[in-house]
Design brief:
381 residues; Dihydrodipicolinate Reductase, domain 2; nine-stranded mixed β-sheet; alpha/beta; globular; 22% strand; Rossmann fold
């Protein structure tokens, strides 16, 4: 039976990490089929990947430009493309497919420059196309529960926010004269990674997560960064002031010994607080004012709102990053299919990060870098 939605990939060869995550997450949904790709600039690896993924050799392309042009002219062409190449070519790949009339899902960051993000946003709106950005952690069920609880006023009016994303994986790269590990190299190269390393890679997840669960927008920020002799930051601190005067702090680090992938968001309100830790994604810590802390668990009967529907396994059976991505793609696929068939997507279908979120992330990174270069001066967004 033919699938409802066909997609292609730019990047995501068989030796890639994040591209493989995207592909497997999409495979959670039986409605989508991988039918085309430009998986690698290495011809042998590109061909090998196409064979491994059972893609028709005629639809394994040597360039993304050829892919966009050919697929847009086919009656059975792809409905969306998943872009999982390194940061420095996100903009040009996204633009190519949008101009060809193809929906785009892009790994974050959306691009390097604010004007590029604004152009892509404008282009997607003019052509009525989806331009999604995979801030993957907002796909977790308990993050959606956190958002729902805040919207319902269960912690009252927000007073302050604290977020952090810490890893240790670049600790061995602290010596600028030392040899770099292959996996780490491009993260430290401004030509490929952009103007920020730690804050651009990790801090943007915190920025988007806080906005997603609270709805708050940053008015201005001040930041300090540590490069330890490298071109880009390995460690950074940011103080935020939101549009309503609430303040918050973010910390991102890739040299924090003992921290593996520690994304942690805490929101404090007049009636209580909520805390979510990516290391334990199936749980949400809720502390009502003057009452003992409660640990809410995904998949349980006491979670009954729309967010609870994202749970895919019974409680006690851990879900993880693949499911976070899969929940984003579930909504993206629903939206693509409905637009394709003349239906109107629901608000729940549209619950995925968009080009607006991508633009916010680019603005955030530029403001952090500007502030750090100016003795931690306040910078308006």
């Amino acid at each position: 039976m033919a699938k409802l939605v066909k997609y292609g990939m730019v990047g995501g060869h068989i030796k890639a990490f994040i591209g493989d995550v995207h592909r497997k997450a999409i495979n959670f949904d039986t409605r989508a089929e991988l039918v085309a790709g430009c998986f690698s600039t290495n011809p042998d690896l590109n061909t090998q990947t196409g064979e491994e993924y059972c893609v028709d050799p005629s639809r394994v392309y040597t360039s993304y430009s050829e892919m966009a042009k050919t697929e847009s002219s086919r009656a059975d062409g792809i409905d969306f493309v998943s872009v999982t190449v390194p940061n420095h070519i996100h903009y040009e790949v996204c633009k190519e497919f949008l101009e060809a009339g193809i929906n785009v899902v892009c790994e974050k960051p959306l691009c390097f420059e604010v004007w590029q993000a604004e152009e892509l946003l404008k282009l997607s709106k003019e052509k009525n196309l989806i331009l999604a950005v995979t801030y993957s952690y907002t796909g977790y069920t308990m993050v959606k529960v956190m958002r729902e609880m805040i919207q319902k006023g269960e912690i009252g009016d927000i007073l302050t926010i604290n977020g952090e994303f810490a890893q240790e994986w670049l600790l061995d790269q602290m010596d600028p004269s030392g040899d770099s590990k292959e996996l780490s190299t491009w993260r430290m190269d401004p030509k490929i990674a952009g103007i920020s390393n730690s804050m651009g890679d990790l801090g943007t997840h915190v920025e988007h997560m806080v906005h997603y669960v609270t709805g708050l927008k940053i008015k201005r920020l001040l930041a300090t960064t540590d490069t330890f002799g490298h071109p880009l930051d390995f460690n950074a601190y940011v103080l935020m002031e939101y549009e309503n005067g609430i303040k918050g702090t973010y910390w991102s680090s890739q040299i924090a010994a003992g921290k593996l992938n520690a994304l942690l968001v805490r929101v404090y309100g007049t009636k209580g607080s909520l805390e979510w830790d990516q290391h334990y994604p199936d749980y949400l810590r809720f502390t009502p004012k003057n009452k003992p802390p409660q640990t809410l668990s995904r998949g349980t009967g006491y979670l009954t709102g729309p967010a609870a529907a994202y749970s895919r396994l019974p409680f006690g059976h851990p879900e993880g990053l693949f499911v976070g991505f899969a929940n984003l793609y579930k909504n993206i696929i629903s939206t693509v299919h409905k637009l394709k068939t003349g239906q109107t997507p629901t608000l729940q279908d549209l619950d995925f990060p968009t080009a607006d979120d991508g633009l916010n992330g680019v603005k955030f990174v530029h403001a952090v870098v500007e502030s750090a270069k100016n003795d931690s001066a306040w910078v308006k967004l």
